[in-house]
Amino acid sequence: MGNLLPVSFGAGITALIMGLMNGVTVFCWDPRVDGVSGIDDWLIENSITTAHCAPSFLRAWSSLESDEAPDNSLGSLRVVVTYGEAVHGEDYARHRSHGFARATYVNWLATTETGVVAYNAFPPHSELPVGVVPAGRARDGKDVQIVDVNGVPLPDGEIGEIQIVSSDLADGYHGDPDRTAARFTRLGDGVSIYRTGDRGRIDERGELQLRGRVDDAVKIRGYLVEPMEVEAHIRRIPGVADVFVAVVLENDRPEIVAYVVLTKAVMARSGAEMRRELATYLPAWMLPRHFVLMPALPRNERGKVDRTALPSVEVRSTPPTLAGPAELWLSSIWESILGIDSIDRDDDFFELGGDSLASTEVVAKIHDMFRIRITAAEFAAASTVKDLAALVDRCRIDPDDRVCHNTMVPLKLEGSGRPLFIMNGAGCPSTTLSTLSKALHTDRPVYALQPHGFESRGLPDRSVKASARRFIFEIKKIQPTGPYLLAGYSYGGYVALEMASQLSESGDTVEHVTVLDTRISTETAARLAGRAGISLDPSIVDLAPQPSTNTRWKPTRRTVAAMWIRTLFAGILQYPPATQWTVFLYIGGQALRKHRMRTCAAPVTVIRGATNNRGREIWSLIATGSLDFDDVDACHEDVVRQPYVRKTAAIIDRICDRA
């Protein structure tokens, strides 16, 4: 038997004692110390047949990378029992597909005060429920009742507080008679009633369904909302690994906050994307106003979400204000795209959960409504309702009265320090870096540089060196002399390093270069090693992650020819956003294939994503000065997106503080 619960937790000590009293060997795994890494090998080594764990541990276990997951031969595990918090059918299904198709899954409802109240078992190959798994039927000796606020029993199907009637209950709370009186009622003959403080109902099958805590249910716009129900719907969104829903008061009215953990294997969804998906099947009053994306939910030693450790959200204490018709119309556009209401003139689009894709929708709707065209770069520089409305008003009065952000895009103008210049990826709009700029706390202006011709007419640079020359010309308009602070995301990392080399050759000083998850290809690594006259371990050379392929898309002569023609006219013709991004990504790829990297004497910090395995042996062939590494456990795109961008920004802040 495997006890995967802390023994200080009631369920953990119960599982331990029950196992020993039944004569079985109990192997203990402390999730607080050991996490989940190596759990599968531990199960096999000890021939574990029954595993007892919290649902949160089960989710983490199921999220092990594929190379850590076992095949379907782990037949020793026959039963998986979960306790402590709500478990979802999707949790069991995901774990079953992890290699445990022959296991029976059991959901136990138990409390310290009552012991086991009910359980629900799902044998191998049985259909699993959608959403929260019912607690099941009450075990012998326990009578489950659903009562109203006055303690009057409710008919099956109605929601109320769950109370347990039994002779097998605790006597009360030691040294706390007031709390005992509030929860326990003596009926005589050793029988007591315990009021759990949980809400639930008895369904048509006679099974108990939990609906959250009594104190958690709240009225929003006149409708009673149960956070657990909102959680269940959010868990249905592909890519969501874990979620906790809370309620905060904003402008004297309750609003829903969703703390979401997303899987690391795919690009994280923005809050706006999740809110729009939920809006297809949930009413407006059940939609979270705030989405807080997190790498993991904080949990206490019992495995439950530690509410006190959850990050606070900025809430407005005064009613939202808008000034003028442009702000009014723009707020309506944002509301339709972001799925929230009561937008204020000082609200920032990206802080409300918007991303670069959603920003293109805003730009398109502005064109439809006002018959003017603004670029994503202009939007990145004016991302509040107030600033965007001012831009729209200027363009409507005089289309030429605007600052053209073809290559250099100001993301943050405030600050007294030397500017930070960030070179963007080849096929990325400047809005890709907006979230990063807002997460930075450094006291200096921040500028993004994007490929020439990306958002207005202009011939694109077809080589990394040409891009570097152009970007140097642009940054000298802002900062004529060094020392310079440079950074580059993805393809932009190559450009930033080339800029450092060119600046050094011209006598300028580069303070630091930060490389954001730039990938060194196998060919480039081998070329660098050959130039240095050294041989690399083949296993090191082959570590470069290969680009993912879309098996549903098969290139044809026609599609290849179409892309070739589009790249010829790139910058002269402006394509729809998705096509434009793809075309410039292709141009960047062509530039990299013919680029020959040079050494960089400036200090370099390499920030690597989860699958970027290039280490010092290869990067030291490029960075001949000081070289540091920092890792962000996220996929390539998420290094500059929430929630992982907070760590990326903290690393850059630390670098800037030293400059």
Can you give a write-up of this model?
- With 659 residues, the chain is α/β, with parallel strands linked by helices.
- The protein folds into four domains: 133 residues, 3-Layer(aba) Sandwich (Rossmann fold); 74 residues, Luciferase, domain 3 (Roll); 94 residues, ANL, C-terminal domain (GMP Synthetase, Chain A, domain 3, 2-Layer Sandwich); 255 residues, Rossmann fold (3-Layer(aba) Sandwich), CATH 3.40.50.1820.
- It is built from 21 helices and 24 strands.
- It has a seven-stranded mixed beta sheet.
- Helix 4 crosses helix 5.
- The protein is globular.
- The two termini are 56 Å apart.
- About 3% of the residues have low confidence.
How are the elements arranged and paired?
Layout: E1 2-3, H1 10-21, E2 27-28, H2 31-34, H3 39-45, E3 50-53, H4 55-62, E4 79-82, H5 89-96, E5 104-111, E6 115-122, E7 137-138, E8 143-147, E9 160-166, H6 177-183, E10 184-188, E11 191-202, E12 208-213, E13 218-220, E14 223-225, H7 227-235, E15 240-250, E16 253-262, H8 271-278, E17 290-294, H9 325-338, H10 356-370, H11 376-381, H12 385-397, E18 408-412, E19 420-423, H13 434-439, E20 446-449, H14 464-478, E21 484-489, H15 491-505, E22 510-516, H16 522-532, H17 538-541, H18 557-568, H19 577-593, E23 604-608, H20 616-619, E24 627-631, H21 645-658
Parallel strand pairs: 1-2, 1-3, 3-4, 4-5, 16-17, 19-20, 19-21, 21-22, 22-23, 23-24
Antiparallel strand pairs: 5-6, 6-7, 8-9, 9-11, 10-11, 11-12, 13-14, 15-16, 18-20
Helix pairs in contact: 4-5, 9-10, 9-12, 14-15
